[in-house]
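TICKET: design request
STATUS: open
ATTACHED STRUCTURE:
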């Protein structure tokens, strides 16, 4: 084989098989299949539902599932504030909600549920809901602990402000699931 001859390399595909491709080409000739397009993967909404259901943890002798309940409450509020929301599943297990771009994500931690706004530093927060990530230049978050009461009206207003920000600015778009 000459130095100018193209070598082929095996590349593992999403289906588990391999395909041969030219070492000189940067990408395969067919478009990359996203998780949302995969026939074997669950859509984002189903994954979020499964995540909520799985958030039950044992504390001593009792089951404490407040994080799942809180995440479900947050999700419901997001849908109330934004009926056209797009749900997505990113970063190997993070629910993300988009409208004209990603605007909020949620993560359950051991002692809190964190609701992070992508452009939170640009949003007015008259009710002072943001209590985490306050020194950042872009993101702001709300840490909900078990004993915290959710200020639904103020949170809805903040969610709508995030959507308005996305509509007025060029933010990255997301491909997700509109199903719920």
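STATUS: resolved
RESOLUTION: sequence designed for all positions
ATTACHED SEQUENCE:
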């Amino acid at each position: 084989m000459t130095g100018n001859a193209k070598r082929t390399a095996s590349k593992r595909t999403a289906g588990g098989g391999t395909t041969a491709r030219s070492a000189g080409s940067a990408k395969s000739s067919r478009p990359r299949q996203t998780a949302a397009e995969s026939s074997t993967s669950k859509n984002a909404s189903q994954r979020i539902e499964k995540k909520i259901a799985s958030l039950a943890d044992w504390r001593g002798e009792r089951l404490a599932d407040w994080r799942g309940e809180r995440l479900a409450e947050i999700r419901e509020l997001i849908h109330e504030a934004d009926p056209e929301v797009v749900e997505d599943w990113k970063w190997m297990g993070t629910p993300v909600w988009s409208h004209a771009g990603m605007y909020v994500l949620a993560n359950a931690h051991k002692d809190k549920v964190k609701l992070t706004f992508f452009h939170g530093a640009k949003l007015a927060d008259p009710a002072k809901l943001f209590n985490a990530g306050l020194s950042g230049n872009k993101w702001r978050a709300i840490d909900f602990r078990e004993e915290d009461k959710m200020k639904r009206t103020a949170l809805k207003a903040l969610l709508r402000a995030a959507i308005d920000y996305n509509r007025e600015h060029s933010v990255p778009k997301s491909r997700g699931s509109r199903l719920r």
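CLOSING REMARK: The first strand starts at residue 8 and ends at 12. The chain has three helices and nine strands.
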